[in-house]
Amino acid sequence: MGFQCVDCMSHGARTTDPGRTVLGVPADKRPERALVVPALIVVNTVVFLVTVIQSGSLMGNAGAPLFRDWSLYPLAVASGEWWRLLTTGFLHFGPLHLAFNMWALWVLGRDLELALGRARFVSVYLVSLLGGSAAVFLFADLRSDTAGASGAVFGLMGGLAVVLLRLRQSPRPVLTLIAINIALSIAIPGISLYGHIGGMLTGAAVTAVIVYAPRRRQTLWQAGSVAGLVLLLLAIMAARATAVTAGAVSSLLG
What's the whole-model pTM score? Predict the structure, then answer.
């Protein structure tokens, strides 16, 4: 993005407590280089190649069996296929969709992984992905078919804004980036606006509970708060699934 360098964030993260950074990361566990982000890019790329091979088409890879089994199809989720809420984040419609999301993941994720540490970064990424999927499941057409890492990427945007606020640095560049991408999500047909907004809000929330956790027993607070957010999302989606199932039964009965 060009708005924040790794060295700047690393310097801002060091505070008076030699044992932990201001972001709540044990000082001896702060990574020197990003590993999770490249690993996620590799996994997404491998999954994409599998769908290309299965479908026999670079541009029409959505016809692959893996795509049909993993994409976010709300009716299938309501029927018990809950894994789709996460697996959808590793599928992409064609090479351009993959390239854009992986570029955004690389640009946004490197600094955030170094600032939060690997375990906390993974939590932000996966919970953001779940939050984006939850928004699609709750508000999108039940027969829609959604895929992509965009919800998790938007979660990183929201998380980065929270980190900059915690470091007392201006989040304006990130907020501008979010506003531009939300506008594009509205203007361009076929983009999952619900997934983007859900991922962004969830990413901001999970990052906030991590970086603003009380200093005493901080790791316990962080883990418990993240787990609480996940349980809340699952409870809301379970209620939605029950309502969808009840509605389907009622329509069949008449």
Answer: 0.88
